Amino acid sequence: MTLELDVVTLFPHQFDWMRGSRPIANATGAGSLHLRVLDLRDHAPGRHRQVDDAPYGGGAGMVIRVDVVCAALEGIYAAPVADVLAERRVAVLTPVGRQLHDEVVTELAGLERLTLLCGRYEGFDQRVHDHLANDAISVGPYVLSGGEVAAMAVVDAVTRKLPGALGRDESHLEDSFSEALGGRPEYPHYTRPEEFRGWPVPPVLLSGDHGEVARWREEQSRLRAGSNL
Ligand SMILES: C[S@@+](CC[C@H](N)C(=O)[O-])C[C@H]1O[C@@H](n2cnc3c(N)ncnc32)[C@H](O)[C@@H]1O
């Protein structure tokens, strides 16, 4: 199965670096991801292609227009917006959306068609949330300058869950918050040197006893779950 993932943004060039990076390139090569980055401005009506306007009621900042977003969705998918929403997940990036926890990432990775709408300025006209989208995602309870960085976090985290995205020596199955770890943080990792400035690697990891290593990792994961480390 391929995830058709479209990002709609006013700054498509910001995503250029992602295409060649793992895991995007791997998943694309493996056929599990088809990523498109589309310019919202291409669909703005009028000679000046204005995408935003001043807020009704006054106040600072500009608001992205509902007619522009509607034209973009209907233009990109060549279908009335009701049909677009019936056949794909359209998620607005917003600080007040559903928090991007691992379960949400897993849910999104299981979709066939996902569109991410990146806001800017004061965000979207509320009618975009109410009538042109069927999901709203937040990458955390803080405010970024635009939806692009948030969309990159979504694209990266979701892509890691797709077949072929990670190299053979990497696995998301035991990543922090995974089912395999009961939703807990991952255990700590160590590599050479065995000792550095008097800071030793835990001896159990050098013991060669796989059962003991597994028990230690489980215990460490549980300890981390109870702390903020
Ligand atoms: C400057 S923010 C708008 C903030 C908005 N005025 C508010 O106070 O909620 C511009 C855009 O950045 C994106 N954005 C900012 N913070 C985000 C977050 N934590 N998660 C997802 N998207 C975010 C959204 O797309 C938003 O429309």
List the SSEs and their pairings:
Elements: E1 3-9, H1 16-19, H2 24-30, E2 33-39, E3 52-53, E4 63-64, H3 66-77, H4 81-87, E5 89-99, H5 102-109, E6 113-117, H6 126-131, E7 135-138, H7 147-160, E8 195-196, E9 199-200, H8 210-225
Parallel strand pairs: 1-2, 1-6, 5-6, 5-7
Antiparallel strand pairs: 3-4, 8-9
The structure holds S-adenosylmethionine.
S-adenosylmethionine (SAM) is lined by residues 93-96, 118-120, 122-124, 138-140, 142-147, 150.
List the main descriptive attributes of the protein structure presented here:
alpha/beta; elongated; two-stranded antiparallel ribbon; 2 domains; 9 strands; binds S-adenosylmethionine; about 230 residues; Alpha/beta knot; about 20% strand; 5-stranded parallel beta sheet; Trp Operon Repressor, Chain A
Secondary structure: helix percent: 25-40%
Per DSSP, the total helix count is 8
**Structural class, please?**
alpha/beta
Could you name the CATH homologous superfamily of the largest domain? SPOUT methyltransferase, trefoil knot domain
Bound molecules: S-adenosylmethionine
What gap, in angstroms, lies between the N and C termini?
A: 37 Å
CATH class of the largest domain: Alpha Beta
Q: Mean of residue pLDDT? A: 95
Strands, count: 9
Largest sheet: 5 strands, parallel
Q: Low-confidence spans: pLDDT under 50, at least 5 residues?
A: none
Order of helices and strands: EHHEEEHHEHEHEHEEH
Radius of gyration: 21 Å
Strands ordered across the widest β-sheet: 2-1-6-5-7
CATH architecture of the largest domain: 3-Layer(aba) Sandwich
Total domain modules = 2
Strand content: 15-25%
CATH topology group of the largest domain: Alpha/beta knot
What would the principal axes of the Cα set say about the shape?
A: elongated
